[in-house]
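Reopening this ticket.

The earlier resolution said the output was attached, but the attachment link was broken on my side. Pasting everything inline this time so it's all in one place.
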Amino acid sequence: MMSTEKENDFVGLELQLSPIVSYYMLQTGVSPFNRLYVKNYSDEEIDDVTVEITSQPGFLLPFSKTVTLPRKSVLNFEAENLISPVFTVALSERSEGEITVKVSRGGKMLCGQSAQVTLLAFNECDFSSRPESLAAFVRKSSALKPVGAMIEKKLTSWKQKYTGGFYGESSKNDVRFYFAAAYAVLCEASFVRAEQTGDDLIVADAQELIKNKTASSCELALLFASLLENAGINCVFGRSGGAWYVGAFLSDECFGDTVIDDSSLIENKIERGVNEISMVSVSGIFEGLNFESNEKRTVSAIKKQGIEFFVDLKYARMMNVLPLPERVKTAGGYDLKTAADYSDTALPRKIEEIKGNLSGGTLVTREKQWERRLLDLDMRNPLLNFKVSAYTVKILTAKLDDFIASVPSFTEFELRPTDPGETTLLDAFKEDFTKTVSLKPVSDLLLYEYKNKHLRLSCSGKDFERALTNVYRKEKSRQEESGTASLYLAAGFLKWSVDETDYKYAPVLLYPVTMVRRGGLEKTFSVSVNEDEVHVNTTLLEYLYQQFNIDVRALSEFKAQSLSGYAPVLARIKKEVSGQKGWAIYDSVYLCSLSFSSYLMWKDVRTRMDKFRESKLIRSLLENRSEYSSADATDKQLSSDEAYLEDGKIYLPISADSSQYSAIVDSLSKSFVLHGPPGTGKSQTITNMIANNIVNGRRVLFVAEKMAALSVVYKRLKDIGLGDFCLELYSEKTKKTDVVDKLVNTMSLAGSAENKASNENRKELSSLIRSIQGEMEAMHTVHSLGFSVYEGILGYLDNKDAPDCLTIDSLFYEKLNKNSFNRYLGLLTELSLRAKECGNIEKSPFRDVGRFDYNERWRVKGESILQIYYRELKTLKSYARNLIPVFNMRTVSLTREKIKGLYEVSRLINGSDAVKKVISGGRENVSLLSAAESYLSLVELERRLKEAFSLRYGEFPEKVFTPAEVLNARKKDSSMARLAKKYAASVKTELEKEYRADYYAELLKIAQNRFEIEKRAEKLKKPGFGEEEAALIKAAEDLRALTKAAKNVYADFDVNVFFESCRYIAANSPFLYLEYFASAYESAEKARAQFSEIFALNENRRIPDIDRETEYVLQLMKNLDLIAGWSKYQEIVEECRKSGFEFVLEPLNVGEITPDDILSCFKKCVYYNFVRSEISLDDRLCQFSGLTLEEAIERFKAVSEEYERLVRAELYARLVESLPTPHDDGDHNLEKVILLRAQKNGVKGVTLRKLFTQIPTVMKYACPCMLMSPASATQFLDFDLDKFDLVIFDEASQVPTCKAVGTIARAKQVIVVGDPKQLPPTTFFGADFKDEEHLDVEDLESILDDCLAIGMPERHLLWHYRSHHESLIAFSNAMYYDNQLLTFPSPGEMNSKVTFEYVDGVYDRGGSKCNKKEAQELIKNILVRLRNPALKNQSIGVVTFNGAQQAYIEDNLIKALREAKLEEEAFERDEPVFVKNLENVQGDERDVILFSVGYGPDRDGKLSLNFGPLNQAGGYRRLNVAATRARMEMKVFSSIRANMIDLQRTSSQGVRGLKAFLEYAERGREMLVFNSRSVGVREKGIGEYIARELTEKGLKCVYDLGVSDFKIDVAVVDPRDPDKYILAVICDSGNEYRIKSVRDRVAMHTKILKTLGWNVHFLWTVNYLGNPKREINKIKDLVASLTKAGAVGKKNAKEITARYKRTYRSANLKPLAKAGPDYVLNDNNVAAIKQKIRNIVAAEGPVEENTLAFYLMTVYSVPKTAKKAVQRLYDIMKEEAELIRETDGYVYFTDKDVDTFRPLDEKNKRDYTRVCPYELVAAARCALELSGPADKDGLVKQIMTLMNAGRKTAKATEWTEKALELAVKEGFVILTVDGNYTV
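Inline output:
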């Protein structure tokens, strides 16, 4: 069919169509368009020409294409195969159709044409023109399988084997036998021949043919061919002479063409003998003809008739003539079964699968864990619970695999509607979620659309445009707000459920797309895919793992090589979820925006990790190791005094203790973790940090998870005047107009700064600090001895009662140092200890025993020698007694000398020949004894003379010396000289002449002595002692020894008696007694020597006689068990001697000092000398005045309070000064234009995120501090903006690391503030979920925990301010903070403010989960408190353990309050009553906390130890939160006592903590358990001595009061109330010195104590040392005054009043002559007016603004009606800025600080409500000093009395109360926790 049409001169159309259209054409790719030409006849190019193809009925798919026609050209439109598979498959009979082609431009038709075609039914085959089309009807079907089995059975009956394949190794016979068997089976089926006419027929499917056994010849031929093809046999079939034939190739070959019409080709193959093809006729089957007969007949017929055509089936398949699918009728329409569906031999397609381990363990990086954690796992997230809405559009998808394979990267797909008439298509997708659409026509249609870059939607017309417009607008809005795209094609949906009932759908594959809208009225929409960001739904993967333990999380990182490679992902997920009942994956695809609450944070982590790694902290977290070096470490704690010094660089607009100050300093340069336990001033510290950073030009991002935390800091910033420079953006609900207005207002401040500096104030503070710190430093500086003066004083006081018995010289003191002193103390301690063990040293049996090394070996030797020596002594004594009468000794005392003498006598009598000869002779021999003595004396004299000679003259001339010669020479001088010369020469001595006489004189002495020797020798020679001098000397020595020994034996020596005794012994020789005595003596001496050696006996030990020696040895034997101690004692004694301690040992040995006194005496001497010396050398101590120091302290307090006010003004001025003005060059001017434009148009069309990127300079100056949540930081701050200098996280224990990293990456420096002992983040899913297999990369519970784990530098806030009673924090401090918090005791410390009330209630386990009785008791307590006037002002909070108890109390409390009409008292107040549980109470606090445990015994009396959240990991932290919420009191209501909790049944830390808490509530401080590591040795302080003396004076008191490191040195009990303290005595003790900062020590903690209700008295140690009695009496007098009414005496009252009170002095207000309005308006008079202002202020200041204006109007005669002049006066007044003070909206003029008050009087009438508030503050201080603490009403009355205010009106009272508020706010007056005011 061909036609040409031309409707104009320019464009023509040529159309040629196929006459028929069928499904066969669609399958084989034959287009119904044989030609489609569009021609341009003109000389001009024609653009925007649209060619559109339509059909009736809709058998073609819509086609439209816009092109440009080149001039004089023809465009050939090779239109794709547009045949609709859905339509043609459903077509069951032949019909007619029409195809229309239109060519148009701009809606105007240029040309067009329509043509008729014939539409064939699906099963209709018209093979007249295309015989090969018959091959398409040779199909595979499930119905063929039973027939194939029958064929195999037939072969078996023929005893032929069927191997399942042909050709290859099989023979021709194998093929022929199977062909014959198939023929036989068909014959046996007895088919009935159906009529067939022409070349057109409807071909029934195989199932119908076999079932009905009716077929036309063609149909049976096609069925036979199907059986052969199914068996793998190449076949041909065709027609010859009107009959149908089927043949089988017996070898693996085919013809070279699809259709064979040459008879010879067939004839040659079937010729018998050739046997290439075996062929039979179909008619033979109908007839039942046997196979071989049919075969023969067929050969004959073919040869005879020839052929019409034959079809080679194998070649047809090769030419892509594929089997038509088998059409199957289904409920949803017709489906198709292809040949592949029935093939059991064909190689199945290769399954593409993702193998291996896909668990999250394969992605064990920290950043991947962050991604997972940021996934929102609640059911509001469409990525888990996808819901179809107006903002989702369904994309028609029959098979998801087709969709995946057909979506190439960045290809633009046009979104197309589906016509309502396409019912089959719409019906297939009528459900929201559909599985694979099994209708092949539908899938074919959609696959065709994909290939043509179309995506079909399930709507059309206006619905189509509306749906896509909704999606487009929503995505555009989201991108503008968040800066990130979230539009996806969500492909594949997992149907899942937790409980098998409520099923939900979650997308699996996410294709990020960009959507484009084009056109005018009729808009078109298209989308394109970003291949790089295609990913699997990570949220779903994480949820599957956490909720169902299905771990395929590694799929989140799966990246296919192409977009078509994502199909295996679905297969793997299907496999993993196959075990879940009811779960399935649907093939649906939706176009939709997909995001969740943390989407932007997740997106940052996923896409910005390379930038994140620039942060040192993030790198540390990723690598799980610290990258912080020693340079990043925090230094030791600094002193807050540095801020007040003259060169201080830190500003403290809010008071800060030293722990806070250290953090503030580090915030300017370091990253660190700041530990902030409850009540330690985190928000004040953060405020100070922010202030110091922004004033130094640094930008700060303050981040907190909760709005409350941001609000607290923001309020504090506003309170110190910095609110204009801080921008709070917590959530997307922030009004854009408010933000822009704020920025505009701040920028408008530029140029308005007033220079207010605090330098002068700092100078005075510096001086005061040095003065106050001087005494403390002098007292506590450690000196060379290793201790301070303070410690020396304590040492002296501790030992002052020791006796003064040691005399230590100054040299010893001079040599003392720390090491020697400590060594001496140790030495003397040891000496004292050993001396005590030895008893009385003077009388000790070991007194002569020296030092030896005691051991077991020694013990054995010692015991042995004592026994031996004892026995030897007794033996010796016995023999000695027998010798007494022999020698006529007449004595009973055998001294050692006598015993030794007896031994010597015995030895000589028995051993000396000379002695024997003497005593054996007559009595005359007795004279020989004296002769021997005389002889030896002369011999010894000669020796001495010769020695003296040798010393004087050298060698003695022994060889030439002749005594006679010398004697003879004396007669002549010449002879003497010659002799001298001769003798000298013999020994070669040069002898001068003048020395010869002396020389000779010496020789003469020797010669004369020699003459006497020789005379004596002659006498000694007579008894026969020998002739030689040596023999004579020997004999003489023996006789001398005998005489000497005899003298020792006798008390009165008588030589005659002795000689007679010797003669008697000689006469009876051998004398046995004497021999045995000598032997006994030698044994005893040997034993004594060993005894002395072993016992190291004193060499000077005296042995008086043998009896006492025996007794001594006996005592040693008896006390030998003590010898070890004595040995050690001797060791110490020896060391002491070496160290010069004779001054201790001597009095100790003589008993002047006891061992107990050794150490104390020594210490007393040393400490006293040290203290006396150091005080005299240090001017700060020797000139110390306590009164002067206290005055300096008071002045410091006042000046430091003023410093804070000045600093706030200076900070504000510096920030305003930093704002760029319009005159300054820079980008800010252009940015201001952008900002003002945005303000003017109401910030329309621009998001805050985008605006911030446009005005970076304005943001830097106008809001250097931004306060945001982690989510809002990501939302509003583009990552590519300049980084903040510092990010501060507050409540970091509640910020997960994954949420924090995005904010951390936006700053250069990080401070993480929080308390690891407080609650971690709480979310519905996953907060507590941990990947147990990969804990090494698993985040801890919060960013705080992770920062601590990697070793990030740390700071600690240590001062606790919240609790008004130490007992309220003591439990947590001891239990959870190792007692590191500095807490302050209150005057009521003796009674705990944590109380316990037992309720006999029942916990309704399994029911309401409430303890109703306990709840009712708690509610009653609340009602009592609200009714009590004394208690109703205290705010109340209720904390429960679970939500059920919380709800019950809340409901019933509201009801009870309503009934009692107490709702207003409960809720209409600054801090209304709240009822919360452990999970949500963090961050809240109240005066009174009522704690309802709730849990308890059930109705059966059984107590379960399951306490809900407490049992969970970290449950103890919940208890810690609850236990630290109270400021004034906590009351615990419980049906459980502590003893009811058996810790053996649980290992929960939380339950253990609960038991300890209940014990503490029941029994108080005694149950506090401190960690042994946190408790050191208590240092003794001066307070102990003061308390001791006060107690002796009758005052009950305690020292070192407090459970933390802060102690009150002495707390004095109120004599009127034994349960309350009245006075805190603070000393310059070690407790105070540990507080290094003067500000902390004398201002802050003193103020805290006074706030708690203490009266404070300072006592200085130097004063106490100098006069203890005076200092003690001061305290006594103070206590007495505090306990009496009218505490101040008249004299003191006058002094106090005089200090504060001044008389009002009036200024000169005489009107000026010639003045008036004109005078005021004249600029020449401005200077005079200003001078008058100064004069008035000097006289009457402070004077209120309007009053001053009235004065000026009086002076210058300006009436009220002269408004210009009046205004001019006000303007001139404002110019005197240095005189202006503004307070609470009132302006005053003064030229000095206001610290006095001026009472009202009749002469100078003043309006009381216009009196400067600072005057009333001074009056308040005066009243409090006069009368002591007072409540508000009493103090107001006293102030008004002092001010002579007259009648107490409401306005006057209100003004006075405002002044009191100012006094408290600025620190002039202290408001105590019990509502009293004090100073």
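Reporter confirms the inline version is readable. Residues 1302 and 1638 are 41 Å apart (CA to CA). The longest helix spans residues 1186-1218.
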